[in-house]
UniProtKB/TrEMBL annotation:
Function: Catalyzes the interconversion of methylthioribose-1-phosphate (MTR-1-P) into methylthioribulose-1-phosphate (MTRu-1-P).
A GO MF label: S-methyl-5-thioribose-1-phosphate isomerase activity
Keywords, comma-separated and alphabetical: Amino-acid biosynthesis, Isomerase, Methionine biosynthesis
Family stated for the protein in its record: Belongs to the EIF-2B alpha/beta/delta subunits family. MtnA subfamily.
Gene name of the record: mtnA
Ranges in a coiled coil: none
Reaction(s) catalysed by this chain's protein: 5-(methylsulfanyl)-alpha-D-ribose 1-phosphate = 5-(methylsulfanyl)-D-ribulose 1-phosphate
Biological pathway: Amino-acid biosynthesis; L-methionine biosynthesis via salvage pathway; L-methionine from S-methyl-5-thio-alpha-D-ribose 1-phosphate: step 1/6
Gene Ontology biological-process entries: L-methionine salvage from methylthioadenosine
Protein name: Methylthioribose-1-phosphate isomerase
Keyword Ion transport belongs to the record: no
């Protein structure tokens, strides 16, 4: 994607070949800051503190984290320790484990003297593969937006309205995004698409990140409170929902940012199609029941009790929004059962959220 006309990824090797650089997403939307990651500890901190976030980008960062670790010490023991350090940073997104397993697979059977070069090469491949996968997701999902636009146009509408939750755009991946890739492809093809952007409390990834990148790209959008989506659906103001996912089970349950389940319930009640866009590394073929088996991350409650923004003087400030002494809870994700999902948008096509549907696209895992 482009920032002020410059093609930009969310993670890239530094010019000196000794580090990687990222966009610090905790500073968006008001400040654009890049950070240099030089060590395993830097990569682990970037993931845990959410300088990078979104399942595909977490995976790519973990891959580069293993490359940085190999640069410091390519031994079997050091790689095992590095794997465990990175794996412990975020428990819900399966792409993290997938990327780490890919790195171990690439490095495990070769001499230590070759591991640094191979680690950098495999990490770069994982990043490039993510871009290609998400571009294909965009192509497949754009067909759904086009079909929704044709129906809306026949009713006399002047635009097609997509509702999304959290941030599943290019900031959540290496490039293109998952849920927003279809939006970008449709918009670039001339379809008049408008996006309802859930603010996505408590970290406000919709208001701060989705709105930021849609603004950069020129896509019409409106930021709304998290609880507005049902009202919009009741009044025919949403043509389809597209969200991302951090882990999808082999039966089609999807785990995404907290609040996704409520959007799916509202969509079901109002006959609004509810799609989930996902790269295949997000599918956890070892898990069947998402509600029972997927670990749900519980994060620092200050994300709930405090908010950061820009004041009238242009200064970035953090304020407390809850009373002193009031406890808070902060579950990061919820699970939407497959029965509420209209379809899964993958790089191989669109399928029902079911074991049979997934088997048609990924027979090697059936």
């Amino acid at each position: 994607m482009k920032i002020n006309g410059t093609p930009t990824r969310t993670i890239w090797p530094a010019a000196d070949g000794q580090a990687v650089e990222i966009i610090d997403q905790t500073r968006l939307p008001h400040e654009f800051v890049t950070v240099r990651l030089e060590t395993l500890a830097d990569a682990a901190h970037a993931i845990k503190a959410m300088l990078v976030r979104g399942a595909p980008l977490i995976g790519a960062t973990a891959a580069y984290g293993m490359a940085l670790a190999a640069k410091a010490n390519p031994s079997d023991l050091a790689l095992t320790v590095s794997y465990n350090v990175l794996h412990s940073t975020r428990p819900t997104a399966i792409n993290l484990k997938w990327a780490l397993d890919e790195m171990i697979k690439a490095l495990g059977g070769i001499p230590e003297s070759d591991r640094v070069a191979v680690a950098w090469q495999r990490a770069a491949e994982i990043a490039d593969e993510d871009v290609a996968i998400n571009s294909a997701i965009g192509d497949n999902g754009a067909k759904l937006i086009k079909a929704a636009w044709d129906q809306a146009k026949a009713r006399g509408a002047t635009q097609v309205n997509v509702l999304t939750h959290c941030n599943a755009g290019w900031l959540a991946t290496v490039d293109w995004g998952t849920a927003l890739a279809p939006v970008y492809k449709a918009f670039d093809a001339g379809i008049p698409v408008h996006v309802w952007v859930d603010e996505t409390r408590p970290r406000n990834q919709g208001a701060s990140l989705t709105a930021r990148e849609l603004n950069w790209h020129g896509v019409p959008h409106t930021v709304i409170a998290d609880n507005t989506g049902g009202h919009l659906m009741q009044h025919g103001m949403v043509d389809l929902c597209i969200v991302g996912t951090d882990r999808t089970t082999r039966l089609g349950d999807v785990c995404n940012k907290i609040g996704t389940y409520l959007k799916a319930l509202a969509a079901k009640d109002n006959n609004v199609p509810f799609y989930v866009a996902l790269p295949s590394p997000t599918i956890d073929w070892t898990v069947a029941d998402g509600v029972k088996e997927i670990p749900i991350e519980e994060r620092d409650v200050t994300e709930q009790t405090h908010m950061t923004g820009k004041n009238a003087d242009g200064a970035i400030v953090t304020v407390q929004v809850t009373p002193d002494g009031s406890p808070a809870g902060n579950w990061g994700f919820d699970v939407t059962p497959a029965r509420l999902v209209t379809g899964l948008i993958t790089e191989r096509g669109v399928c029902p959220a079911s074991p049979e549907g997934l088997a048609t696209l990924f027979p090697e895992h059936a």
